[in-house]
């Protein structure tokens, strides 16, 4: 188990081997930590595998894993989402078990469930209490969300307290969150780059120390971001590239993505599309959804590799399945735009409509306008002008100006891809009519 923890940052694959041995040897916390490797950048994402490991640890008596499993059930990830009332009730009970065992994250998440609600009857008073309890149990996540939810909750829901009492509680959450972030920065480098005040000025030095002396990959990655963006100092693309490379080799998909972008645009180095493509492939393989989306574009545009439409669709499907709404949108628009040309007629329309529906449901306002236009045109869905306006209004209400403009004047605010598809359809119709003319 100790070996697994050492390798978690320096060599995730070795960590997986060590933690798997600990898990199979009956050390349930090893199962829990191994599960976490399958949810982030450390190993390729495998939600069912992570859920099974959390379940094993929970059943074995390691109660924090019960909370982790429940949170995974509520995250709507493919293959593990709690879809029925019975499954959601079971997930809530898992959170309650973990919270009773004084797991701060579980208490906070249970509070969020009551507050939103994700399941059951909305109970802001109970939700606020649980978030506060999670914060007191050293959960940075709970402190953050307690601050947000106590600001928005009705005073009556908080027990008819006075406004100054609410303000005092919120200040307490903020101070507690700051202390937890400072402690995490000292211990692991986490949050160093977002700390406020005097301590934040030392973030570069602290992250550099942790990267060099402990080979702490997250610290290397965070410091690289700071150098790339010029946070708390000058920009240093070359220095960022070196650190991103360390983190990428260690298994952090986001670092591979950033390094690929530096090579693609020649930031601080010579432009190298082949190298960029190779790094983007690794980013995608490590489960970084945005990397898969960009890789899809590189396949289509033949950037660093031969053009490959089928691979482009495949990697974007992967990213969309991981709830990358931009990937769902770009895939949906492309499939509809190329229906009957580079993808089989009818199939592109049907899948494209479903991808845009998913993106819209995931709060991508531009996708809602795209989905509205499908109903307006009858592309991939039954033509329904009323449904089109309702969906566009949803996007407008979320702040999408193009959607608001389309509702007032469709001709001036129709997306370019829609006009281009209409032009292609007109040309195809004209060609068909020409072939049918008698000779």
What is this structure's SSE topology?
Elements (H helix, E strand, L loop, with lengths): L1 H9 L1 H13 L3 H10 L9 H13 L3 H12 L10 H16 L3 H12 L8 H13 L3 H13 L10 H26 L14 H12 L2 H13 L7 H13 L3 H13 L7 H13 L3 H13 L7 H13 L3 H13 L9 H15 L3 H13 L7 H13 L3 H8 L7 H21 L3
Helix pairs in contact: 1-2, 2-3, 3-4, 4-5, 5-6, 6-7, 7-8, 7-9, 8-9, 9-10, 11-12, 12-13, 13-14, 14-15, 15-16, 16-17, 17-18, 18-19, 19-20, 20-21, 21-22
Question: What do these coordinates show?
Answer:
It comes from Sorangium atrum. It holds the Pfam family Sel1. Keywords: Repeat. The protein is mainly alpha-helical. The chain is built from 23 helices and no strands. It has helices spanning 2-10, 12-24, 28-37, 47-59, 63-74, 85-100, 104-115, 124-136, 140-152, 163-188, 203-214, 217-229, 237-249, 253-265, 273-285, 289-301, 309-321, 325-337, 347-361, 365-377, 385-397, 401-408, 416-436. The longest helix has 26 residues, at 163-188. The radius of gyration is 25 Å and the shape is globular.
- What is the N-to-C order of secondary-structure elements (H for helix, E for strand)? HHHHHHHHHHHHHHHHHHHHHHH
Poorly predicted runs are 1-10
Q: Roughly how many Å is the radius of gyration? A: 25 Å
Query: What is the rounded distance between the termini?
Result: 81 Å
């Amino acid at each position: 188990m100790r070996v697994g923890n050492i390798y978690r940052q320096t060599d995730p694959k070795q960590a997986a081997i060590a933690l798997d041995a600990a898990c199979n040897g009956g050390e349930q916390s090893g199962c829990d930590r191994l599960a976490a490797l399958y949810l982030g950048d450390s190993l390729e994402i495998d939600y069912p595998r992570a859920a099974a490991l959390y379940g094993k640890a929970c059943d074995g008596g390691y109660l924090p894993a019960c909370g982790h499993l429940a949170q995974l059930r509520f995250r709507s990830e493919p293959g593990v989402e709690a879809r029925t009332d019975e499954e959601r009730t079971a997930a809530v009970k898992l959170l309650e078990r973990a919270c009773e065992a004084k797991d701060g994250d579980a208490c906070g998440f249970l509070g969020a469930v009551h507050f939103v609600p994700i399941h059951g009857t909305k109970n802001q008073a109970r939700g606020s209490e649980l978030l506060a309890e999670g914060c007191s149990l050293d959960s940075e996540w709970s402190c953050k969300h307690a601050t947000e939810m106590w600001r928005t909750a009705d005073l009556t829901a908080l027990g008819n307290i006075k406004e100054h009492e609410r303000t005092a509680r919120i200040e307490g959450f903020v101070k507690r969150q700051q202390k937890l972030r400072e402690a995490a920065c000292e211990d692991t480098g986490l949050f160093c780059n977002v700390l406020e005040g005097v301590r934040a000025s030392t973030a570069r030095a602290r992250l550099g120390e942790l990267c060099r002396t402990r080979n702490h990959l997250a610290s290397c990655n965070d410091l690289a971001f700071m150098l790339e963006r010029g946070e708390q100092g000058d920009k240093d693309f070359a220095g960022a590239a070196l650190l991103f490379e360390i983190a990428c080799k260690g298994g952090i998909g986001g670092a591979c993505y950033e390094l690929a972008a530096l090579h693609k645009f020649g930031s601080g180095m010579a432009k190298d599309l082949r190298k960029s493509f190779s790094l983007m492939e690794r980013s995608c393989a490590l489960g970084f959804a945005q990397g898969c989306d960009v890789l899809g574009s590189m396949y289509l545009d033949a950037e660093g590799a031969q053009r490959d439409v089928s691979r482009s669709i495949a990697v974007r499907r992967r990213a969309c399945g991981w709830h990358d709404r931009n990937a769902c949108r770009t895939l949906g628009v492309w499939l509809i735009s190329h229906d009957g040309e580079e993808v089989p007629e009818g199939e592109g329309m049907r899948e494209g409509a479903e991808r845009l529906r998913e993106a819209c449901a995931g709060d991508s306002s531009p996708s809602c306008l795209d989905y509205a236009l499908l109903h307006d045109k009858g592309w991939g869905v039954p033509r329904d002008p009323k449904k089109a306006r309702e969906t566009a209004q949803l996007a407008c209400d979320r702040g999408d100006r193009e959607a608001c403009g389309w509702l007032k004047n469709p001709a001036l605010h129709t997306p370019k891809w829609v006009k281009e598809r209409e032009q292609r359809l007109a040309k195809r119709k004209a060609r068909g009519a020409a072939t049918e003319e008698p000779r």
